[in-house]
User: Which sequence fits this backbone?
């Protein structure tokens, strides 16, 4: 065989040219690592030429250092004489695999070395990547949740040795790695054959086909669990058993089965009819239904069990379509439909909900909405009705959210809020709306407060406020707010009504009321309003005066009975007032009535009260108007007294006229008869002596007539004026009267005796006393049938009611006066006094005069119980001390 | 034989009574008595064995007035003719109602009285109302 060198020569190739053609960096260095020769690749690596490298140290060139690195394989080769190899990096970041090969001379001495360098930067990167990848996979392996065990087959697959296992697997085996590694599977997992996993290992090892082993219960007394295995073979020949502990899943499955049963029961018990359809091929079969379905179909559904949907719903392809869509799209479908129930022979409106139940079921759940629909329809109609009312209401109805935004309002609101249309309002905040007008802006804080109060307290007192219209008109409105809930959200509803007219009327009423209140207050009459129990509800200030109260607070709220009990004298008015109130309530007309009221000062005022029934806000009250009629009463009293006086005067006048006429006619009768007689006598001279007698009668009658006239005049004067009285000595007057009587009573024998214990006696009197004595003495003579007229005048002092009196007794022996007559002889009763004798006027004149002196006069019998023996006229006159 | 008319005078004013008496006697009447009051009159009337043809009766008198007296007298003798001679015209109606035959209001003339008595006795009727209330005309 020819030498290679020869061959090179033959080819014309120099040996070193050969080295220039390779990609490895080749250089020859002496023992000091100085380059003796370098190939082209070496020079190229630094962008130089081989020539330039000669004489340079290799470390200067590639390591850019002034000394070789300790690990330099060339240096090692020179020192050791054996080839050395090492990886090194250069400052530019590249990696190199450097081999140093010692060059020995023929003596075997080392004279230098050949350095062959291959750039391994890419290799290094690959290596690094691989390492990183391996670490990643190992991490993955170790941290897989499934257990992984790598087995190596031994004895041609007779057994398997555990080569590696991940953390999960270790944890599951409850052993340490060193206890397991390189151990036989049958040792570590003795039950592996029992559960058939071992044979799977063998099969996989032999065939290389991975195999899934269904969850199996592994139990070797030390370990027990439900495991699921997946066995596969690695390219490197090992087999891997990947397994999961599915105990929990199994348990869960059992629970699920239980749960299924439960749910089945639940399904059966779903209160709304539900039907379970199972997908079978291209069709669905009814496999189950809930009890409610049985109920609603009255059991009829049972005959459809197992029936295909395509048969059942020949007429309803939409249902089949829905079943299919639910199944295909594994989705939930809800739709309303009308469905004809044979049982009812009627359509029902159903809500059908299709739910896909994996793997192959569709649950059709139905809810009968017929009633709900009807209710909805009714609700809708009702809502329309309310909406109509809402829209047509003359009140503004506004629904506002809690922020104050208008959510809805009716058309009346447009008018109230000066808007063109509802759309100008809906969605706007009330603040914006009130800001349209400067004056309305003032309402904003008020409304804010109201809204807050409504939200907090849930109630809002109705309130009135003015709204300025766009044309500037002021409108008074009444607002009422309430909290409402619409679909669980809080809103406020405001109802606003126009009360401008009402306000105006109220204002007028108020003004009117003020006017009347003014009248009421200023009235001089007491005006009081009393409720049906008699409690004073209101009264004016005049009432304070009438009822002697400090102010009306003492009266208002108090019952009149209480008020009239303040004063003992007023208490007796209570029953009368109660009766009046009772009559008023009965509707009996109650005339104004007068009564006296005792003031706190003790003064009595006379008042006139007028009661009337009145109604205030449908409640009955009694109004009393009380006026002070004291002055009127006084005037009335005066008038009455005056009337009485005049009546008496009139009666007297009548009496006097009557008596005067009567007596005067008697006088005239005497005169006439006397003149008749005289006329007769003149024809008969024999009677001449009788003429004188008759003339005496005439004179006497003339005197009598004159007396009569005088008495009447005196009496009239007595009635008209109080005669002045003065202290007079009375005995002398009496004596004068006696003397006169004796002179004038011709033809009658008189025995008059004055029996006085007093020398003188002074009384308050006047010249009329003479008439008193004349009258009494005249009567004593006149009414006396005895031939001798006896008159005893007794004068004494006496006391009556602790007052001193002078007592005069005129005791006669006349015809006497019957007891009945005694009562009336001094009375001036005129014509009733039919039996009074002619003198008539006399005793009434006497009585009148004595009364005038504050004295007394009466008549007694001279002899008790026998009036016929004569009379005793007794006169008492106050003595002047 | 001509019957003399008997007259009984009841009058408390004795002056008047006596004047009547004198006048009647001169005129041919017989005055059977004078009573000063009603009670006396009744007593006297009862005592008369022969009742007077005419009673001239005053009204206002003490103890018993003319009307009451007349009522009692008429009880005793209902045919008794009573002529009232009173100054009290207010009782005129009552006087007739109780049964008196005439009423002469004072003052009246003797002629009037005499005619009244005669007329009463002639007519014999109570209803004869020919009573003069006028003042008597002087007869020449």
Assistant:
């Amino acid at each position: 065989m020819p030498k290679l060198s020869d061959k090179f020569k033959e080819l014309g190739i120099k040996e070193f040219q050969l080295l220039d053609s390779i990609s490895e960096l080749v250089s020859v260095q002496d023992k000091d690592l100085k380059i003796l020769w370098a190939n082209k690749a070496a020079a190229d690596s630094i962008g130089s030429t081989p020539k330039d490298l000669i004489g340079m140290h290799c470390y200067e060139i590639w390591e850019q250092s002034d000394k070789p690195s300790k690990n330099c394989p060339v240096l090692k080769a020179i020192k050791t004489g054996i080839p050395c190899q090492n990886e090194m990096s250069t400052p530019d970041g590249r990696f190199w695999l450097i081999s140093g090969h010692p060059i020995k001379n023929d003596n075997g001495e080392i004279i230098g070395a050949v350095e062959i360098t291959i750039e391994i930067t890419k290799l290094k990167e690959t290596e690094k990547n691989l390492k990183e990848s391996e670490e990643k996979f190992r991490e993955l392996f170790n941290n897989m949740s499934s257990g992984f065990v790598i087995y190596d087959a031994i004895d041609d697959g007779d057994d398997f040795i555990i080569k590696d296992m991940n953390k999960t697997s270790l944890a599951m085996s409850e052993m340490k790695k060193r206890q397991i590694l390189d151990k036989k599977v049958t040792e570590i997992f003795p039950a592996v054959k029992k559960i058939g996993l071992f044979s799977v290992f063998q099969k996989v090892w032999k065939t290389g086909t991975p195999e899934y082993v269904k969850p199996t219960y592994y139990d070797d007394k030390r370990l027990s669990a439900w495991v699921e295995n997946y066995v596969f073979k690695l390219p490197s020949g090992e087999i891997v058993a990947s397994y999961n502990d599915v105990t929990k899943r199994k348990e869960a499955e059992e629970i699920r089965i239980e749960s299924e049963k439960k749910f089945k029961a639940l399904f059966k018990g779903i209160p709304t009819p539900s039907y379970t359809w199972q997908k079978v091929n291209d069709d669905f079969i009814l496999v189950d239904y809930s009890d409610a379905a049985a109920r609603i179909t009255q059991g009829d559904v049972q005959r459809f069990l197992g029936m295909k949907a395509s048969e059942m719903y020949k007429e309803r392809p939409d249902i089949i379509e829905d079943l299919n869509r639910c199944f295909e799209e594994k989705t939930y479908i809800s739709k309303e439909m009308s469905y004809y129930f044979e049982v009812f022979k009627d359509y029902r409106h159903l809500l059908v909900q299709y739910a896909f139940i994996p793997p192959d079921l569709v649950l059709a759940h139905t809810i009968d909405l017929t009633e709900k629909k009807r209710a909805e329809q009714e609700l809708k109609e009702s809502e329309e009705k309310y909406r109509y009312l809402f829209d047509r209401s003359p009140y503004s109805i506004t629904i506002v959210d809690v922020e104050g935004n208008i959510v809805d309002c009716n058309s009346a609101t447009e008018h109230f809020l000066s808007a063109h249309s509802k759309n100008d309002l809906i969605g706007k905040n009330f603040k914006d709306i009130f800001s349209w007008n400067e004056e309305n802006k003032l309402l904003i804080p008020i409304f804010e407060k109201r809204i807050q109060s409504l939200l907090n307290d849930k109630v809002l007192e109705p309130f009135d406020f003015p709204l300025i219209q766009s044309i500037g008109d002021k409108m008074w409105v009444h607002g009422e707010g309430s909290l409402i809930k619409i679909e669980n959200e809080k809103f406020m509803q405001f109802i606003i009504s126009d009360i401008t007219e009402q306000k105006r009327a109220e204002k007028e009423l108020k003004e009117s009321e003020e006017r009347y209140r003014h009248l009421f207050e200023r009235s001089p009459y007491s005006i009081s309003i009393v409720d049906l129990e008699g409690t004073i509800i209101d009264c004016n200030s005049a009432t304070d005066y009438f009822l002697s109260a400090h102010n009306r607070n003492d009266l208002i709220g108090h019952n009149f009975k209480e008020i009239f009990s303040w004063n003992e004298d007023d208490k007796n008015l209570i029953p009368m007032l109660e009766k009046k109130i009772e009559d008023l309530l009965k509707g009996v007309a109650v005339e104004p009535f007068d009564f006296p009221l005792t003031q706190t000062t003790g003064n009595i005022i006379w008042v006139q009260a007028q009661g009337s029934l009145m109604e205030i806000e449908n409640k009955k009250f009694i109004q009393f108007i009380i006026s002070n009629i004291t002055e009127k009463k006084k005037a009335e009293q005066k008038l009455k007294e005056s009337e009485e006086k005049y009546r008496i005067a009139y009666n007297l006048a009548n009496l006097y006229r009557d008596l005067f006429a009567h007596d005067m006619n008697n006088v005239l009768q005497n005169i006439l008869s006397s003149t008749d007689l005289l006329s007769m006598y003149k024809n008969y001279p024999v009677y001449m002596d009788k003429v004188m007698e008759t003339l005496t009668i005439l004179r006497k009658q003339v005197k009598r007539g004159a007396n009569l006239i005088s008495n009447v005049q005196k009496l009239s004067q007595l009635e008209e004026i109080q005669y002045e009285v003065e202290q007079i000595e009375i005995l002398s007057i009496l004596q004068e009267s006696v003397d006169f009587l004796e002179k004038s009573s011709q033809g009658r024998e008189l025995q008059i005796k004055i029996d006085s214990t007093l020398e003188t006696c002074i009384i308050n009197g006047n010249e009329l006393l003479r008439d008193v004595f004349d009258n009494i003495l005249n009567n004593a003579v006149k009414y006396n049938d005895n031939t001798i007229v006896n008159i005893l005048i007794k004068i004494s002092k006496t006391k009556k009611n602790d007052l001193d009196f002078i007592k005069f007794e005129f005791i006669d022996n006349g015809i006497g006066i019957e007891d009945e007559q005694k009562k009336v002889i001094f009375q001036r009763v005129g014509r009733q006094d039919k039996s009074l004798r002619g003198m008539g006027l006399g005793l009434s004149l006497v009585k009148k005069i004595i009364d005038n002196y504050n004295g007394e006069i009466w008549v007694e019998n001279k002899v008790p119980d026998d009036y016929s023996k004569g009379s005793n006229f007794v006169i008492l006159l106050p003595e002047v001390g | 034989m001509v019957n003399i008319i008997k007259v009984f005078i009841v009058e408390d004013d004795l002056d008047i009574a006596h004047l009547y008496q004198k006048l009647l006697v001169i005129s041919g009447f017989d005055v059977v008595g004078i009573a000063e009051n009603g009670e006396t009159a009744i007593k006297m009337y009862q005592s008369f064995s022969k009742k007077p043809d005419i009673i001239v009766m005053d009204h206002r008198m003490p103890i018993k007035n003319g009307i009451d007296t007349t009522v009692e007298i008429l009880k005793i003798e209902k045919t008794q003719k009573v002529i009232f001679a009173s100054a009290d015209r207010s009782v005129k109606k009552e006087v007739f109602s109780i049964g008196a035959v005439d009423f002469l209001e004072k003052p009246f003339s003797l002629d009037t009285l005499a005619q009244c008595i005669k007329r009463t006795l002639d007519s014999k009727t109570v209803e004869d109302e020919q009573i003069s209330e006028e003042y008597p005309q002087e007869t020449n």
